[in-house]
Design brief:
A hairpin with a 2-residue loop joins strand 4 and strand 5. The chain is 46% helix and 19% strand. The longest helix has 21 residues. The protein has 11 helices and 10 strands. With 280 residues, the chain is an alpha/beta fold. The N terminus is likely disordered.
């Protein structure tokens, strides 16, 4: 993501409140008063952002307040949210999946689809890593199963990048050599692409994790890693409850290693570092 200046970093913290609260920009600005409006105005007056969303003059906040389409807020989210990720991030998790969780899930669910949710998927590296790991496990174990991966993010811009699945050559070295020939293909000297057979099982969808769900889907495995570190206590508690409800009995939740949950924060059982299981 392009650097937007020190003031925008502070503004991003405020916008995060808007993004993950489920409220509209106008309502949050009204509730938080001059402090919130100051941070929002800092962003709106940034010349790069103003050019991107066509802000005219000094009335950017007023324009965003009146924008019922939500387009300006979406553009601001795309501009400010953190989308840092890479292939095989926190590799210990993928070792645990391969050695312990995959065998258990597939033994119990061998006659139906395996359902997975990657929450906060960003530009797709995490869900593609997971899909490649699953495909490798299926091939080695000679299993015939179907997997469905839902990958969600609040930013439409990063979702479009994830759907294209084209990555720069510097990411190539992060992918295990044994995966490169089977699951990736070269686009040109500077880029490579994830193979269609890996992309086929992934559905990308825009979702605000703090917004009410119209339909409660159930999953055998949820990855919500390095997302809650941006939440306050109340928002974190709300998200944990949603994730718990979204897990099938016997399902697993993986979070970031910097986001460990105490016994008071979840009804799930801690089974591995930053890995929790729904036992009831």
């Amino acid at each position: 993501m392009e650097y937007v200046g020190a003031n925008q970093v502070f503004a991003a913290a405020y916008i995060s409140v808007i993004v993950w609260s489920g409220f509209s920009f106008g309502k949050i600005a009204h509730l938080t008063g001059c402090i919130g409006l100051f941070f929002a105005e800092v962003v709106c007056k940034d010349h790069i952002f103003a050019k991107t969303v066509h802000v005219e003059g000094d009335d950017g906040v007023d324009q965003m307040y009146k924008d019922r389409s939500g387009k300006m807020l979406d553009d601001m989210v795309d501009r400010l949210t953190t989308n840092y990720t890479y292939f095989l991030r926190e590799q210990e998790h993928f070792d645990i999946l391969r050695q312990f969780i995959f065998p258990e899930l597939f033994e119990k669910r061998q006659f139906r689809n395996i359902t997975i949710w990657c929450a906060g998927c960003s530009t797709g590296e995490e869900c593609y890593t997971l899909a490649m790991a699953l495909e490798e496990y299926r091939e080695k174990a000679n299993l015939n199963f179907h997997m469905k991966i839902l990958a969600t993010d609040i930013s439409e811009e990063v979702l479009e990048q994830a759907r294209r699945a084209v990555y720069s050559a510097r990411e190539w070295k992060r992918i295990p050599e044994r995966w490169r020939g089977k699951y990736c293909q070269t686009v040109d000297s500077k880029n490579f692409q994830i193979h269609e057979k890996i992309k086929y099982n992934i559905r990308f969808q825009k979702q605000n994790l703090m917004a009410p769900c119209m339909k409660q889907e159930q999953f055998d495995l949820i990855l919500c890693r390095n997302v809650m570190i941006y939440f306050d206590k109340a928002a974190k508690e709300r998200l944990i409850k949603q994730l718990e409800k979204s897990l099938n009995p016997g399902g697993y939740l993986l979070i970031g290693h910097a986001e460990l949950l105490s016994r008071d924060e979840t009804e799930l059982e801690s089974v591995y570092p930053a890995v929790y299981k729904k036992t009831v």
